[in-house]
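# step 3/5: fold
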Amino acid sequence: MDCPICLDEFENSVFSLNCGHVFHRQCIQPLVNERTRNVCCPICRRTSIFSFHTHYIREVFFTTTVNSASSSPISTSTNESLILSPSSEETVSESVHHEALTDLRRQNQRLQDENADARTALESASEREANLRSTILELRRNLGTTRTQLEASKAKHTKWKKRAKELEVEVMKEIDNADDALRERDEMKREVRKMRKEVEVAQAEAEAAIRTTARMMKQAAPRRGRNTWVAVDNTRSDDDSEVAIANSDSDSDSGSTSDASVRIESKNARHTGANNAVTGRYRVASIASNPNSRPKKEKKRELEYGRNIRCVSNRRPRDPDRQGVPKCTDKEGHNFSGKGSNQYQKKYNCSSCGIKISERV
């Protein structure tokens, strides 16, 4: 019989616990609690009181195999060693072997149960592992798909972000263009208003010139057989030349009327002298009524109306040797003042440059 702790055969110092398990004394003594003097059986985990009495061995080994009458007396005093006969040693050995075999069977059964439980747990773990592996494979496939979708989403995000920037730039350009268009519209409105005012002014001046021309022609119409005075309006002329149309009446003897003649006079030719320095005037041209008669010297006379008087001090005469018109110091034009009047005309004099203008009544 062997010790369950050291697995050596029993020779001396056999020690038994309350549960009946037998060990070497030197094997079981280190397991004793020094404070409580209790020991836990390494086999059955039952707590026993550690002592050196031998009645436990008698209860285990001699209860069923040894008669109390034929048995030799055994001392129960403390620290008394157990003395066995040869036949008793054999019986004790068989009992110990039987007890050890029983313990081994119990251990084997327990191990088998534990093995069965471990196999069941292993099968369950294998099933869970298989399920986890399939789940992992499915997750890996989903991960690959998700990564592909993520890359596509990133590409779309980059594309739309770039498109958003382009649209933002286009919107800013459109806003700038709209601002420019609004400014151009406002500028065009101002130009239209300005042109409208100019057209209204030109229309008013043209109407005034027409009325003046009609009045002058009406006044000159009764004078038959004489040179006819025709007014030429050059206030708003945009061409480089002016056209003066003269109507001539027929001679008093013949009673016939000749055709109208056209005379083209250059603008610059009127600015060669001091008397021709004012624009916006009406020039009266004398044309002979009879083309075959002796040419007479052309009579010219300056006519000036209030709002048509303008300063021409910056203009130069065509002949550089001749003296130009004195520069007028007034920003708005000549500073005319009434000098006097008579039955036929009103006279004006510029206090800045000294030019004299007369207006027919």
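# step 4/5: annotate
The longest helix spans residues 86-220.
# step 5/5: archive (pending)
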